[in-house]
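Need a sequence for this fold. Nothing fancy.
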């Protein structure tokens, strides 16, 4: 008698609102609980119903910047009941610091691009305007400039 609570890949993907390729990738990385089942000449991979929740947790963690490797370690600990809260707090603080650094870099890029747009608009409106070295340095360090 077969255990019908396990899900085939198509059903799991549909329930988790993802693709079969994503399910396969997560399974290859060991993020999902699966088993192989022989049916005639075909070998099927079946997934534990808890995988729907796991996929939702994985996608949530990815959305806030965690890598699949980081997620795997935490996910295994969570489901095994071995979640070290101090370690998780430290990892999350490190991720926050990393994201804040990325945010600062993005803010700098936005400022530089905005200045470049202003400089290019001025050049377009005024044929006699020649940007200074400082104008170009503030917009794109690698951009050649005229004095």
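Here you go.
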């Amino acid at each position: 008698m077969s255990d019908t609570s396990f899900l085939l890949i198509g059903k799991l993907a549909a329930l988790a609102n993802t693709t079969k390729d994503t399910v396969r990738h997560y399974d290859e990385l060991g993020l999902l609980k699966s088993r192989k089942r022989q049916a005639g000449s075909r070998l099927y991979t079946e997934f534990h119903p808890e995988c729907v929740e796991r996929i939702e947790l994985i996608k949530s963690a990815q959305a806030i910047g965690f890598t699949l490797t980081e997620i795997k370690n935490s996910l295994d600990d969570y489901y095994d009941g071995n979640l070290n809260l101090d370690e998780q707090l430290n990892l999350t603080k490190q991720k926050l610091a990393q994201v804040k650094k990325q945010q600062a870099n993005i803010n700098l890029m936005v400022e530089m691009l905005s200045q470049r747009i202003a400089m290019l608009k001025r050049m377009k409106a005024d044929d006699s305007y020649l940007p200074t070295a400082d104008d170009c340095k503030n917009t794109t360090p690698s951009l050649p400039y005229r004095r």
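For context: Confidence is low (pLDDT under 50) at residues 141-147.
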